[in-house]
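note to self: dont lose this again. the chain is below, predicted strucutre after it. 465 aa total, dont forget to put it in the shared folder this time
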Amino acid sequence: MLLDTRTISQRNRVRICLSTLLFAAGCAAAACDDAAAPDHDRGAPTTVSAALSLPALNVDITQTSTSGLSSGAFMAVQMHLAHSSIMRGAAVFAGGPYDCAEGSIANAVSRCQQGTSLPAASHFVQLAQQQASAGAIDPTSNLASQNVYLFGGADDTTVVPATMDNLSTFYKTLITSGSVLYDARHAGAAHTMPTLNFGGNCDITADPFIGKCNFDGAGKALAQIYGTLAAPATTLGGTFVTIAQADFIANPKSHSLADNGFAYIPADCQAGARCRVHVAFHGCQQSATTDVADKFYKHAGYNEWADTNHIVVLYPQTISTSGSNPNGCWDWWGYDSPNYFKKTGPQIQMVRAMIDALAAGSTGDAGTVDAAPDSGPIDSGPIDSGPVDAGAPDTGPVDSGPADSGLLGCFTASNFAHVQAGRAHDSVGHALANGSNQDMGLDNVFFQTSLRETAPNFYVIGTCP
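---
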């Protein structure tokens, strides 16, 4: 992607906007200095159809977290602040403070990326507190006990270290009893998502914007947010799910959103275990609709940790939009809506609807997720997670048969096998448990569920001994 100047026509006016590397490139037709509204209604809440593309899981919504790279990093901060009441923490790889651009592409390029005349962090703290007081985002007091991880590359010239320093001060002002871990100016790292051994050279900013840095950024982020974690999986046992984003926002393409998003769901979460959700936002030119393809949602490093730690990873996706968003960035300067940094921002609304859909199956009776933060220091050296095999999981049915537990039976199998055995029935492509009608997720061999028979032909989602 090149630094360029584009001529853009809107409502018979011609504007010339500066487009810059990776995530701020491509002038928003509504941006430059005054963020005029486009022809379609950007600020109005969207009407969402019944969500059928995500399973309803036993998710503890109060343990949600988020992270992102580049434009996804700015988006993660916006999501974190907008819905802090359900958040446990956040991680930011090359981003900046809340509403850094203040609706201006010029601000996005100069102050936020290059650090030119960047206001003090207290300015952005005040902006967040004003929005919270107006009810546009959740109270900033929710952040006090949360945990945040920040990563900035020493060789990052796309988002300069000064912007990350500002973000660190921003969070440290609001987080008083939690922890902010800042891996500042990481040696040899450019504008990239750092991994142990996947991607291009760590010191180069280039497709796929994932770098072999001998550093497990996703692992560090999740450990900072959630505390001590079980060792990551060496072979994935869960399932990648394709999400129809139109189930969560009307006409996604009009908001520079792709037809499909993705999620990684560990097998234990599919089977009814108590789990939590982490939302990972890709950067510009990094969605699955680009040459990057599946590299971010399969190889950024999150899934191996999620697989063994009861974490569902949600990967929403953007698309490039000619004129307003040619590089497929998340809206962090107002190209789609003047409410981009609020709860009513269309992209934020879509992601929140996805989280709510995942948490719709919460029962609270299949064990609890540890909610006690470990805010002690975390070694920022390499995490040796061993080789990763991201191939297709073993999807054959597993049936443990009736358990001697005082129940009529307890069965663990694929949803398809449950339906075939008469323990569940199909409804619009989902498997519903007989009797309780609990939604087990998609009716296929990839989703496994444990069903407990508590009365003749009455099954509930649970765990089997």
